């Protein structure tokens, strides 16, 4: 590992600026608010933060419709605030990764404003157009957010493509000028001392060349993954020159392409955020198919061994809360949050924690349409209603799957608004404030927060848990996830019961081992082979005397 590969030994923490801490009492989190909580990040033990999109935006897709890539949205502060935050984080050795939406801008971005007025503008070719009389759209492609991917632009007699909302026109990466613009933007932020980027939506960059109808209108027209490579290559020199970590959001990527993109010599990324493992709950029955998870996680662990590095995560600002989608938020809220933490963090790779995950926050589970802010959730509601689905059923679905479930203010104290703000926040809080908040959990040696702090310490202190080889112990059941991490003969074993029933196993021998960390109190059942619901154990396997 070289000094520039610091991220291999690091634990990351995603901050959603709207909901971290509000320093100016307007109900919206901001950059000075983050700066005022640096000591908390330090106490957690994280090594870098990933700041979700904070650029000036049209506020249609929560900051991912950027109007200016070289500034900070006034609701979050100023560039001076950004610089001060970077300085404060660097002072305590926390690095800073920022988000960059590569696939699209806002319709309010000056490039698009010029492009939509005039076909001869130099910016017209920054976007993707097809002739359209305004009534017939170019093809059947649909956006991720559920409408046609085309919006007519009467001023030029065309329609423009948008893989997401109509207010997020897709950039034309075929155009070398677009590639140069993005490389310049990366350099501009490197000059402000950021340590890396999380590149948004990279699997969307290349569209089908023939612009024909496709069988699956929502997905088939992008994900020409081979075609994305040359675009990404345009960013490589600036990333390398500045020693920046490159993290790609790569939904739907296949293993062959992932290995190409992570190639240590000629690849484009250091880490890829891939999503299969956090989506089983949507289709699987039972919703936590442990056998599928074993297969999926192990596939990536094994394939990247000795070659590249995994990004490990179970939450972000686009997902519901893990304790609600895989855990048992009813019978075992604390224990299942802790067990999920140990399960993913001690595998091989760089763990990412999403704000509030370390508190075991469950879904916000809003009750009324008015509670929702996320465009995707609102669109979903209206589409389903138009399709005749009863409102109660739609609201029940949103309470389970909406992105707003995880976008609520971080609760710092049990006080009003969770101590996040003195003003009513832009979105409601997650229920359970009295016990699930930073101050209360910091005082409790058995809290999810305390357990996460311990996990982070172990992950960083024990070389085998960082760079040791991963080996699955296949228990062939649908409850246990057991794996080993081994480095130079030093063996560690993680045993997690990912179910709400007791699990019994003879599949592995724990006699020659020492229990180092567990989420069960000492008075719990101590039979090694009987694993309590959502119990998680970290063992150090003793070397057996010859
Ligand atoms: C991924 C971002 O994380 C998400 O919040 C956003 O809606 C889409 N990309 C589009 O930018």
UniProtKB/TrEMBL annotation:
The keyword Magnesium does not apply. It comes from the Bacteria. Keywords: Glycosidase, Hydrolase. CDD domains: AmyAc_SI_OligoGlu_DGase. Residues 14-407 form the Glycosyl hydrolase family 13 catalytic domain. Pfam families: Alpha-amylase (PF00128). InterPro entries: GH (IPR017853), GH13_cat_dom (IPR006047), Glyco_hydro_b (IPR013780), O16G_dom_2 (IPR045857). Belongs to the glycosyl hydrolase 13 family. This is Alpha-amylase. The gene is malA.
């Amino acid at each position: 590992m070289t000094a520039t590969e610091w991220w291999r030994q690091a634990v990351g923490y995603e901050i959603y600026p709207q909901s971290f801490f509000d320093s100016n009492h307007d109900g919206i989190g901001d950059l000075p608010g983050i700066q005022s909580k640096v000591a908390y990040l330090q106490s957690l033990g994280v090594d870098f933060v990933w700041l979700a999109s904070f650029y000036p935006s049209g506020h249609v897709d929560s900051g991912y419709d950027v109007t200016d890539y070289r500034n900070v949205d006034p609701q979050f502060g100023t560039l001076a605030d950004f610089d001060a935050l970077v300085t404060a984080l660097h002072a305590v050795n926390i690095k800073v990764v920022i988000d960059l939406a590569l696939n699209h801008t806002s319709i309010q971005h000056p490039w698009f404003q010029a492009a939509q007025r005039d076909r001869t503008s130099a910016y017209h070719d920054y976007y993707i157009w097809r002739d359209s009389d305004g009534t017939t759209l170019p093809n059947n492609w649909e956006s991720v957010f559920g409408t046609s991917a085309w919006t007519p632009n009467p001023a030029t007699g065309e329609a423009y493509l948008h893989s997401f909302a109509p207010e997020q026109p897709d950039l034309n990466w075929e155009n070398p000028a677009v590639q140069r613009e993005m490389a310049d933007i990366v350099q501009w932020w490197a000059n402000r001392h950021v340590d890396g980027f999380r590149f948004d939506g990279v699997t969307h960059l290349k569209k089908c060349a023939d612009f024909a109808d496709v069988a699956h209108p929502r997905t088939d027209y992008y994900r020409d993954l081979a075609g994305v490579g040359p675009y990404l290559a345009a960013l490589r020199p600036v990333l390398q020159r500045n020693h920046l970590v490159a993290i790609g959001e790569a939904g739907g990527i296949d293993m062959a392409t992932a290995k190409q993109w992570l190639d240590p010599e000629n690849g484009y990324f250091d880490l890829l955020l891939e999503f299969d493992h956090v989506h089983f709950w949507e289709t699987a029955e039972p919703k936590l198919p442990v056998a599928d998870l074993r297969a999926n996680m192990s596939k990536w662990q094994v394939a990247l061994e000795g070659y590249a590095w995994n990004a490990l995560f179970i939450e972000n600002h686009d997902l519901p809360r893990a304790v609600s989608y895989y855990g048992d938020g009813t019978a075992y809220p604390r224990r299942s949050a802790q067990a999920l933490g140990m399960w993913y963090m001690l595998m091989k790779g760089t763990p990412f924690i999403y704000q509030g995950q370390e508190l075991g926050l469950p879904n916000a589970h809003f009750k009324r349409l008015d509670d929702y802010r996320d465009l995707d959730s609102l669109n979903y509601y209206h589409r389903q209603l138009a399709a005749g689905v009863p409102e109660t059923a739609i609201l029940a679905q949103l309470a389970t799957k909406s992105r707003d479930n995880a976008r609520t203010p971080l609760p710092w104290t049990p006080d009003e608004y969770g101590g996040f703000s003195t003003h009513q926040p832009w979105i409601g809080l997650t229920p359970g404030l009295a016990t699930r908040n930073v101050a209360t959990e910091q005082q409790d040696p058995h809290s999810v927060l305390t357990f996460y702090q311990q996990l982070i310490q172990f992950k960083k202190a024990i070389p085998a848990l960082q760079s040791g080889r991963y080996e699955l112990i296949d228990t062939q059941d649908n409850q246990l996830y057991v794996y080993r991490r081994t480095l130079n003969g030093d063996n560690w074993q993680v045993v997690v019961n990912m179910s709400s029933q007791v699990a019994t196993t003879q599949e592995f021998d724990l006699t020659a081992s020492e229990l180092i960390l567990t989420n069960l109190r000492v008075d719990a059942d101590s039979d090694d082979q009987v694993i309590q619901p959502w119990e998680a154990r970290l063992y150090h396997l003793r070397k057996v005397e010859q």
